[in-house]
Write a structure and sequence with these properties.
The complex is a heterodimer of chains A (449) and B (507). Chain A is α/β, with parallel strands linked by helices. Chain A has 13 helices and 13 strands. Chain A is globular, with a radius of gyration of 25 Å. The relative contact order of chain A is 0.14. Chain B has two domains: 255 residues, Aspartate Aminotransferase, domain 2 (3-Layer(aba) Sandwich), CATH 3.40.640.10; 121 residues, Aspartate Aminotransferase, domain 1, CATH 3.90.1150.10. Chain B is built from twelve helices and 13 strands. In chain B, β2, α5 and β3 form a beta-alpha-beta unit. Chain B is globular, with a radius of gyration of 26 Å. The interface between A and B is large, with 207 and 208 residues.
Chain lengths: 449, 507
Amino acid sequence: MRYLPLTEADRRVMLAKIGVPSIDSLYADVPSKALLKAPIADLPDHQGEIEVERQMQAFANQNLGTASCPSFLGAGAYRHHVPATVDYLIQRGEFLTSYTPYQPEVTQGTLQYLFEFQTQVALLTGMDVANASMYDGATSTCEAVQMANRITRRKKAVVSGGLHPHYHEVIATLAKFTGFEIVSPQPAPQGGEDLMAMVDKDTSCIVVQYPDVFGQVRDYTKLAEAAHAAGALLIVAVTEIVSLGLLTPPGDMGADIVTAEGQSLGNPLGFGGPYVGLFATRDKYLRQMPGRLAGQTVDAEGRRGWVLTLSTREQHIRREKATSNICTNSGLCALAFTIHLSLLGEAGLRQLAELNHAAASRLADRLSAIDGVDLQTPQFFNEFTLKLSKPAAKVVEELAQRRILGGVPVSRLWPGRPELENLLLVAATETVTDDDMAALETALKEVLR
Amino acid sequence: MTTPSMPQAGATLSGNKALQIEEPLIFEQDAAGRTAVDLPAVPQHQERLGGLKRKQAVGLPGLSEPQVVRHYTKLSQKNFAIDMNVYPLGSCTMKHNPRLNEKVARLPGIADLHPLQPVSTVQGALALIDRLAHWLKTLTNMPAVAMSPAAGAHGELCGIMTIRAALLAKGDARKRILVPESAHGTNPATAAACGYEVDPVPADDRGRVDLAAFKAKLGPDVAGTMITNPNTCGLFENDIIDIADAIHGVGGYFYCDGANFNAIVGRVRPGDLGVDAMHINLHKTFSTPHGGGGPGAGPVVLSAALAPYAPLPYVTHGPNGFDLKEQDDGGTAFGRLKGFHGQMGMFTRALSYILSHGSDGLRQASGDAVLNANYILAGLKETLTPAFSGTCMHEALFNDDFLQGTDVTTLDFAKAMIDEGYHPMTMYFPLVVHGALLMEPTETESKDGLDRYVEVVKGLAERAKAGDTAYFEGAPYHTPRRRLDETLAARQPILKWKPPVEKQAAE
C-alpha cells in the first residue's frame, strides 16, 4: 500500500519494543464482541492510481460540465475564469498540507495571507473589519443573525423575500432549535416588500440580499436608517462578490454586518462546495464576531508578525459560552480568493465586474426580445429574472437536452408556487461568449414556440 | 560621510536569511493601474445598475503576475507542513495528503458542475456521493448518513439537531446534554448552540468517562451525551457499550464525536457500540487536506431511530436514476444546514483516498497509526511522564510532571521542538491533564522518522532537566519570526492593513 511506510519487519521490531504480540492486541480495550478480526468483507481491497483514477473519471463522464457547454447558471454560485496561477499556488504543500495556524512561528505564511484576506474583504464590503472566513455564504449569514441577537438582546429576525431560500432555510433551521423568530414576506421578483412594517421592538435585525436572489439591485440606505431608528441591525448578504467591484458597497449604505459567498473569486463551482463565507462588520461589534481573526503584532525582536487573536470569543477557549461553535473554516478557499483578488487588483476587478455586467445586459436585451419572454428585473449586475410563457423547469430540461445549461428555474428554489413557476434566473459572466448567447437565444425560441 | 557598518555576525543587510526572505504585504507593493490579468475590452452595453455604480475605488493593490507568484511562494516558505516532516499535532490527524485526490477533484465534469444544474445532467456526481455514503455507512455499520455538514463542528450541530428533532417528535426536547470534561471545545459550544444546558462529566483516574458519575447524572431531562471515542486522551472508552445502554435507558441518544475515527476504522464499527449519531471528519480520517484551517467536511452517520430526521438535501434512488431531495414535502427532515448539497470537492478526495486504501488498507492504516503512537509512547515513557498507564490508541499523551522543578513549561518545550524541525505536539489539551503534550504521529511516519523524533524529544527533555531553562524560554531561534506577542495583538487589535499616514515633509 503506497501510502504506508512501515514494512512487516518494522512492525515486528516496533511491537517487540512496545512489548505486545500484535497490532490487534493494542485494541484490548475494545469490547471483544465489537472488535473486527478481519477487514470488512463486502468492500473492495486497495487499488493503484490507475484503477482509482479510471473509476473517478467514470463518475465525471456521466455529468455535463459547465465548461463543456453554454452555461448561464447562477443563484448563488457562479462560473468565472480562475487564472492558472491560483490553482498552482494553493497546491503548494506548505499551504495545502498545513494546519490551522495555532503555532504562529511556523505559520507566518498562512497568518499573513489571512490578514491580507481580511483587509480585502473589509475593503470590498466597505466595512471596518472582517474575519478569516466561514463555511459559506448561507452559514455566514446565519452567524450574522445570531450575532445581531446577541448585540441587541432581541430574538426576531425580519428576512427579505429576496434572500436566497437556502440562506433563509439555514437561518430558519437554527431559529427553530434555539428559539428565535423569523418573519418574512413572500418572494417577489419585482419588489415592493415593506420590511419595516414587520419590525417591532423585538426585532434584532433585517436581512436583505444585494443584488437580491432575483438579480435586482436595490439601495438599502433608507432601510438601514429605519432599522437603526428601531434599534435593529441591517445585515446585507452578497451571493456574487464580483458585483462589489462595480456596485456601491453595503457598508456605504449603512449595513452593520455584511456576509457573502466568496466562491466567485478563485474557487470552482464544484457542485456546491467547498466554498468560502465572508463576514464583515463594524469595529464596535468586533468582540461579538464569530470565527478566527488574524492580527498584527511584533515578535521578541520587535519585527512585525501575525497571530490568531481575540480567541477568547472562540469555542476552544470559551466552550459553551463561545460566540460560535465553528472551528475548521475555509482556509484554502480563502487563499484561492485572496490570490485571485491579488492578481486582479483594483483595475482588474473593475474590468472583470464591467465585463460581467456587459454580458448580462446584452444577454437580457437579446432574450427579452423573444416572444413569450419578459424581463422582470430592470436593474441588475450579472443575473436577471425572466418570465417565460411556459414553466421554467421544463424549459430548462429541454435546453439541457440540447446541451445548454440555460439558467436556474425559480421553482427549483421555491417549488409548488404557481406564481413563480414560469420564472427563470439567468446569469452571464465573463466566461459567456457571443456564440453561447446566440445558442441560448436560438434554443429558447425553439423551446417556447 | 559615514561608512556603512558591517552587519553583526549572523545578521544580514536585508533582514533576509538565505531561503527565508522577508515579504511585505500585497498592499505595500501597489502600483496604480497594474494588474496580473489581461481581460478583453468591455463591449458596448446598456448600463442597468440603477444608479448604484460604485463611486469610490475599492483600495486594492495592483501587482503583476510574477510579483503575485513570488509573494505567495515566499509566504508558503514560512509555513510548516505535513509534506515536510513529522507533524505530531494530537487530535488534528496530520497525515499524508495524496496528490491523486487533488487531481481527481479537479477533473472536468466534477470541478465545473453547478449545484443547481438539472439532476439529469449530474448523475455521475450523485453516484459519487452515493458511493462515498455507502462506504461511510458500511465502515460504521450505520443505516444512514447526512452528507451536507461542512466540517466537524458543523457535523456536531447536525447530530445534536437531529437528536433534538427526534425528541421533539416525541413531545419533549429535554434540557441537558452530558459532555465529558475532556471533550473538544466544539462539543459544549454545539450543545449550547442547540439550546441545551451542558452538564460536564468528570474523567476517572484512567482517563475514561467516570461511569458511576455518568450514571448518577442521568435522568428524564437528559437529551443525550456527546462522547469522543477513542477519547481526547487517546484512549478507547472501554465502558462505551454500558454508556450507550445507560443513555438509551433514560430515552436519550448517544452522539459520538468521530474526530478520532482514524484510530479504529476497519476495526471497530460505531454502530456495534450503540452510537446514534457520529460525524466523520473527512479531513482527518480520510485525509482531505487541512489547507491551513479548512475546508473540511463532516458527514454524520445516523442510527435507524434518528435517520428520519436527517437534514436536507440528500441523494435518493429514483425510477430514472439518482435524485436529489431538496425539499421536505411535509416529511420529518429537521431543516437545512448550508447552501447547496455539501462539500463535494472533499467527497471526491475522500472517495479517492478510500478506494486507494480499500477495506484492507484502511484497516492497516488505523493499525499502523496506533502502532506508531505506541512506539512513541514506549520510546518516551522513561524520559517523559505518560498521563496514563498502559497502551494508547492513535495518540500518546504526556503530562508535564517531567518538567517539574525545571521552570520549563509545556509551551517552552513545544517551541524548542520547532527549532529541531518538528511541528509541536498539541499543548495543554485535553484540559484534564496538567500541561498536556499530545502526540499523534499517524500512519504516515516511517520507523526511522519516529526513531529520530523520539531521540530529539528525549534530548530536549534531558536538556530541560539539566537546567538549561533560558534556552527553552528563548525558543524558537531559527524561525522566520521569534515568539510573537499575543497579548499585544489582543489588547490593540490590528486586523487589517491601513495606508500609512503621510508624514509631513521636514522643513
